[in-house]
Amino acid sequence: MPYPYVLLSAAVSLDGYLDDTGPERLLLSSPADFDRVDEVRASVDAILVGAGTIRADNPRLLVNSPDRRAARVASGRPEYPLKVTVSGSGELDPAANFWHTGGEKVVCTTDEGAGRARSLGIAADVVPLGPALDWRRLLEHLHDVRGVRRLMVEGGGTIHTQLLQQGLADEIQLVLAPLFVGDADAPRLFGPGGYQGGRLRLVETRRIEDVVLTRYEPTAPGAGPLPVAADRHWLALACELAAACPPSRTAFSVGAVVVAADGTELARGHSREGGDPVVHAEEAALAKIDPADPRLATATVYSSLEPCAQRSSRPAPCARLILDAGVRRVVTAWREPDTFVREADGSGLLASVGVEVLVLPEYEERAKVPNSHLTAP
Ligand SMILES: NC(=O)c1ccc[n+]([C@@H]2O[C@H](COP(=O)([O-])OP(=O)(O)OC[C@H]3O[C@@H](n4cnc5c(N)ncnc54)[C@H](OP(=O)(O)O)[C@@H]3O)[C@@H](O)[C@H]2O)c1
Ligand SMILES: [Zn+2]
Q1: What is the pTM of this model?
Q2: Is 376's pLDDT higher than 80?
Q3: Angstrom distance (rounded) from CA 288 to CA 285
Q4: What mean pLDDT comes out for the span 124-128?
Q5: Phi, psi (degrees; rounded to nearest 5) at 318
Q6: Which residues pair with 270 in a beta bridge?
Q7: Cα distances (Å, whole numbers) of residue 168 to 40, 153, 229, 306, 313
Q8: Which-ligand-closest: CA of 51?
Q9: Which residue from 9, 19, 165 has its CB within 8 A of the most atoms of ligand 1, so it is best to mutate?
Q10: How far apart are CA 377 and CA 249, in angstroms?
């Protein structure tokens, strides 16, 4: 289930509104920030907005700078990013600017909405995604069928709220504008409901004229069989740690991170760390955590290679250490090949006793890089 990297972009008033209720779009950003947004647009494969934003603002969603468009073309990309809108009803205005400017357009909609959009003669590829709209399915479609690797989402609030609540946003770029809207009927950026992501990680703050750009990433692991964006971040970190292992001809290079349910990193480890020639990554990470730490019961272990089920160098394999630590969720990139152990099945062993094991094969290549000398045919 590979998805694009999803970047949410919005400007908001000090009292948390996206717009006022007047007929014109309220300009929240400053000129230099509009230029920054143009730069971000130029860097992505697709820009997505909800049908409500097309109705309210009639946006064009272009890359305005000719130099940035030329650079896209020179690097083999289309001049403009793909434009995507999301509509349940298919009630779209065929005269809206969205359809008549820029490059390719897609309407992601329901089966019923597709019939309506087509009957209205919308000048775009209309994609029905089932009886109701499912964000994971939509992201998979953009990734697999459209080749979208980076997706910029430019609102409105309904869309931002759903992507965050479902744990599908990899990054938020939020611009805080120094003004108040003060109208309870105006659209808010984030609506009520349960949010995934935990306490977000602040990755950047930047003053741009009189507005402030803040960038955040989610940190909290998912809780079940569906990966959230933070799961991908932590697994990517485990793969980076694998690359830092002292090389060996007789054992894999693996990285592991243990993360609490609220997104706090409890420990990390990698193979052969600290001069121990046989220590495994999960073992090294778990050894740094107090076994009585109550957060272990709801923690997730990320490991670039699935935890081992058999080993000769120590009495207990990592799958056993994970069970003994009380961890109930494991995310891994790569199932263990037969290189050292035949029919290794750490994932199966863990799953057989009720541990949630997720394999994200889109990270397998990264996990294999520091082990290529062991797996080459
Ligand atoms: N300040 C900023 O950065 C910024 C950026 C963008 C927008 N805005 C403002 O935000 C406001 C619009 O926000 P909004 O929340 O009303 O609209 P929106 O998020 O742009 O779009 C909502 C629409 O998207 C479709 N949709 C969303 N989730 C769906 C789902 N799960 N299933 C099916 N359809 C789904 C529905 O379309 P159908 O109704 O067709 O079914 C829904 O009405 C405007 O006032 C605009 O100015 C501000
Ligand atoms: Zn192990």
Answers
A1: 0.94
A2: no
A3: 6
A4: 98
A5: -65, -35
A6: 255
A7: 19, 11, 5, 24, 40
A8: 1
A9: 19
A10: 15
Please give the pLDDT value at position 377.
63
Q: Is the CB of 133 under 6 A from ligand 1?
A: yes
- At 7 the pLDDT is 98
If you average pLDDT over residues 87-98, what whole number do you get?
98
Looking at the chain, the whole-number percentage of residues with pLDDT higher than 90 is: 89
Cβ pair 318, 302 in contact under 8 A: no
Give the contacts of 167 (CB within 8 A, at least 6 positions apart): 196, 197, 218, 222, 226, 228, 229, 230
Q: What is the pLDDT of residue 374?
A: 83
16 lines ligand 1 (CB under 6 A): no
- Between CA 363 and CA 342 the distance in angstroms is 23
18 lines ligand 1 (CB under 6 A): yes
Ligand 1 atom with least separation from CA of 25: 47
Distance between CA atoms of residues 9 and 24, nearest Å:
20
